[in-house]
Each structure stands twice: as structure tokens, then as C-alpha cells.
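Quick one, T. Sequence first:
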Amino acid sequence: MRPNRTIRCADFPCRDVDRKAYSIPGVAIDASSVSLILISEAAAPNPADNYYARGRPLFQQTTVQAFQDAGADVESIRDILDLGVYLTTAVKCGKKSYGIKPTTIDECSRLLERELALFPVTRVLLLMGDVAIRSLNSIARRTGGPRVIPSGSTYKIRHGEFYFQGIRAFPSYLQAGPSFFIEKSKRRMIAEDIRRALDVALA
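C-alpha cells:
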């Protein structure tokens, strides 16, 4: 299965993101093997930096390092996939500026909702940053449920126990991109959150 063959944006209504950097994962994956889905912020501004791009894309470098920090024996995105972890973004186009409008996150959450539905045995969602958290909350509200992650700083809520339709959800910080190497305290917390998520997913 390749997610980008069944999920696509038809009309690109959002104006604050770069349509030229649109990306839905095209990686071949056995959906029945995925127990953990990591959701980060947005597609890379440069498509060559996305998770599944060839070579050593930036998102791969920072994510592999984050999993290594968490004690996982990985050297590549393929190694992470082999752990039963699928990586995607909440927003499928690259950012034009630092922030993303709430309306854009809510609109793109419709694509994410369909993407999550492709993986029927998922046990854990790892939400990397505020955009991923808002996106999941949008899906939950639209499907008639309460918000999954409460409001508040990630630092204060990251040890809470949250569920979306029976799936454990872990709020954390963004690991994809250059800021990962700069913010040392967040890097430590990201490692802790990945470790806890893996422990639940692989139990």
C-alpha cells in the first residue's frame, strides 16, 4: 500500500502554505505492520528533505537521531519503518512562514483523518508539536468526540494519558527540522516521549 495513491488534495484551498511543496507519503508499506504513527508539523519546504526522500534528507537525519536518543537501534527511515512506525505530517504542503493558520490545519486534518484510517491496527499516535496536536483535535471534534489533547503547554501535559478512539496519543515537540539540533532541552524530552510511545506500541 502507498498512501499517496488513495489520498490526495483535490483543490488546494489553503493560501498560507506552498502547494509546490505538497507531499503525501508514497512509501510502500504493509498497513497491518504499523503500530505507531508519528505525526509532525508540515511537509518540508524543500521536497528533498521529506521523510522518504532519497539520500539523507533533513527530516530523516533529525528523526533518526531522535529515535537513537530514545535508545532505538536505527540508522535510517527504513529501520524506523521496520519497528512498525509510520511517519507523516499533519499539513501536506510546506510552510511559507513560521506559523500555519488554524483554518489550514483544520482543512488538512481531513486528509490526515483518511490517512490514519489506512492503518487499522495502530496502537499509538505520537504528536510532534502544536500543529499535530491541533490536527488530531480537529479530527476528534469533527467525528463527534471531545478534544483528545487538552489546552496547555506541552511541557505540562506531555505526561498525561490521552486516547483517540482507543488509540493512545502522546503529545511531544517537533523533531523534524533544524531546530531539533538547537533546542537541547526539548531534544531530551522528545527522546523520552518516543521511548514511552515505543514501549506502548511494542508491548
